[in-house]
Amino acid sequence: MSLWFCESQTPAVRLCTRVKETLHSDKTGPQELAVLSTYQFGPALIVDGAMQTTSRDEFIYHEMLTHVPLYTHSHPEDILLIGGGDGGSLREILKHPQVKSIRLVEADRRVVELSKKHLPQLSACLEDPRVEILYAHGCQYLRETKDRYDVILVDTPVPVGRVAEHLTKEFYQDIYTALREDGIFAIQSASPFFQEDVMLKIHRNIQAIFPITRMYLAFIPTQPGGIWSFTLGSKDYDPLSTLAQKTPIPTRYYTCRLHRSAFVLPRFLEEMLDQEGPTGKS
Predict the structure, then answer these.
(1) Quick one: 41 and 71 in the same domain?
(2) Alpha-carbon distance 211 to 234, whole Å?
């Protein structure tokens, strides 16, 4: 008998992958967590019924979330990471020699614990001395913190339902306030095919706060539709200008040439954003 994990994207679309075994399943905390061993993608972290990351293709997502803003900023020393308790984004951030400190704000301690046990290729950097882990809700932390950061990264599930607070202008205003005068932030902003309304709302609200707003794309097999969007908000640096950093780092997806090309959007997506208002400086 074959065991399959199926994730519903719309009432008419489900994406499925065959599963070898369930390594963990837990419904007792603030979110439902599971780790599945899959045939095609290896171990996979599932949050509230949605596939978040797999050992086969996680490097694409984590490299693009982190290196695009970090290579754009001229001196990314102090970093705030909201979510990302699996450790994949931390691993990529720590490749940048200028980084001095990373505060990881993770709402669910179990994500860290499960990743240490089942996803070692992601979680090894959680013990790095430059990393401070704070177990708290990211939105509340941003409202209350007096600390300021060079780069803020939001590595949380697509903001629907329980985490819909990540869609509000107030959330992005709090991020703006927590950034230094030349700060940058980036967030995953969903699928242009299956979550168009979420993607556009994120872009619209970031654009209302930040003088420079740019959407960019990556191609991730296990994300719905394959094409996945990210949105960057910047107070000063434009990621389409000359990259601030030139230090080579080991990557499997991200390159400096890809950095620039990722901001070249297909026509249908340009048209979506044109209906929302001008991209870039607003």
Answers:
(1) no
(2) 7
